[in-house]
Amino acid sequence: MFDIGGGELLLILIAVLLLFGPRHLPELSRTLGKGWRQLQKAQEELRQQIRQLSAELAQESGPSEPSTRQLRHNGQ
Fold first, then answer.
1. CA distances, 5 to each of 1, 8, 10, 19, 24 (Å)
2. Using CA atoms, how far apart are residues 61 and 50, in angstroms rounded to an integer?
3. How many alpha carbons lie under 13 Å from residue 71 in its C-beta half-sphere?
4. pLDDT value of position 22
5. pLDDT above 60: residue 1
6. What is the Cα gyration radius of the chain?
7. Residue 45 near residue 53, CB atoms below 8 Å
8. pLDDT tens digit string along 18-43?
9. What 3-state DSSP class applies to 76?
10. Cα distance between residue 76 and residue 68, in whole Å
11. How far is Cα 51 from Cα 35, in angstroms, rounded to an integer?
12. Three-state SS across 37-72?
């Protein structure tokens, strides 16, 4: 996803340790974990809403008109 190698990850962890100190790492980890879960939950809710809206639109619209490609294929 982010294409981060082991060396880069180690460098980031050292920077975080230097910035926040060892005492604040558990709290920081919990906060980041909660934020990540909220982001994933919001993402899943958005996907469900899109699926639901797509299904509703498919039901409301009748049979679709043929596409240009289909018309060309049938005409040849």
1. 11, 5, 9, 21, 25
2. 16
3. 5
4. 86
5. no
6. 24
7. no
8. 998 889 889 988 999 999 999 999 99
9. coil
10. 12
11. 24
12. HHHHHHHHHHHHHHHHHHHHHHHHCCCCCCCHHHHH
Q: What whole-number distance in Å separates Cα of residue 28 and Cα of residue 20?
A: 8
Mean pLDDT, residues 57-62: 79
The CA-based angle 52-70-53, given to 5 degrees, is 5
Distance between first and last Cα of the chain: 45
Phi/psi region, residue 61 (left: phi>0; alpha: psi -120 to 50; beta: rest), is beta
Tokens representing residue 25 in the block = 């790492």
- Report residue 64 as tokens: 């679709």
Asked if the model's pLDDT at residue 10 lies above 70, the reply is yes
| Angle, CA 75 vertex, CA 71 and CA 76 arms, to 5° | 125
